[in-house]
Amino acid sequence: MNIALWIVQGLLGAMFAMAGFMKATQPREKLAPKMPWVNDYSATQVRLIGIAELLGGIGLILPWALGIAPFLTVLAALGLALTMIAAAIYHLGKGEYPGIGINAVLLALALFVAVGRFMS
């Protein structure tokens, strides 16, 4: 189980860190062609979402790997799960149903990490 958790943590951590870094550093105009949802939010809001995802991605890996406050890994996973719930609600409101599927998969993986690491 530990190996499966590490694989999911690594993949989710890398994905959220990269996506968050991109949202935190790129202008909205550059993000808009691939992420049209950014047009509904201010540049500051997009950056804050990016920073939250970046920190969540880091939080999935570092606390548990270093053994320093490992409960932060559980909190990071729960925070990212909440982020995916909010994203799914947004996509539902816009009728963007394929986006909900991606959010649901990422939500399930984040919950897998949260529960798995909480139980360890």
Task: Write up what this structure looks like.
It is a single chain. The protein is mainly alpha-helical and 120 residues long. It has one domain (2-119). 82% of the residues lie in helices and 0% in strands. The chain is built from 5 helices and no strands. The chain has helices at residues 2-25, 28-31, 43-66, 71-94, 97-119. The longest helix is centred in the N-terminal third of the chain and has 24 residues, at 2-25. It starts with a helix and ends with a helix. 27% of the residues are buried. The mean pLDDT is 96.
Strand content: under 5%
C-alpha end-to-end distance: 10 Å
Order of helices and strands: HHHHH
Integer tally of domains: 1
| Largest sheet report | none
Please give the radius of gyration in angstroms: 14 Å
Low-pLDDT stretches are none
Shape: globular
The total strand number stands at 0
Q: Give me the secondary-structure category.
A: mainly alpha
How many separate helices? 5
Give the % helix. Answer: over 70%
Question: What would the average pLDDT be, to the nearest integer?
Answer: 96
